[in-house]
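Figure caption, in words: inputs first, then the predicted bound structure.
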Amino acid sequence: MIIKFYLSCIPCFFTQDEVMINHEIKIAFEEYDTLNELNKNDHTLCLEAVKALANSHSPYSKFKVGVAMRLLSGKIIYASNQENVAYPSGLCAERVALFHWGANHPDDPIESMAITAHTDEFPLLKPVTSCGSCLQVLAEYEKKQQQQIRVILYCQKGPIWVIKGIENQLPFLFFEDRLITQ
Ligand SMILES: [Zn+2]
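Bound structure (zinc ion present):
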């Protein structure tokens, strides 16, 4: 079963100032009950993300995150969260994957990115979404490659969410076109 969600912020109402304009932002994503409902490529990519959990270095949070990213060529990049005893020195799995791509495969566009998580501390019953810093990096590379990136959030005991394009995850992303001088 596919469920499409459209979420929107609730507009605020001002009656005193007629100049004020209300804006509404909608985001959309798909929800699937099981891996079997996904297409073959997405199904496979979720299972590859589970494999990536094995290399997570997360002795402090005990919260493993795995990423498998499929490029246009078919190549799959694997990544996982890497923590450090000096906490800020670690990095989320998403940015490990994206920076690896930027450094090694910038001419092979990212098609899809499957993200999963696991911890023995408590059950994960819904998809784990990315932090704002990872979304900002995702936005940068989506803009660079001029092609939307599909994000698949796979939770082994809950629904699977498929989100197309950064605008459906971070509508107020920072991007200042005037900073581009070329
Ligand atoms: Zn992050």
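The mean pLDDT is 92.
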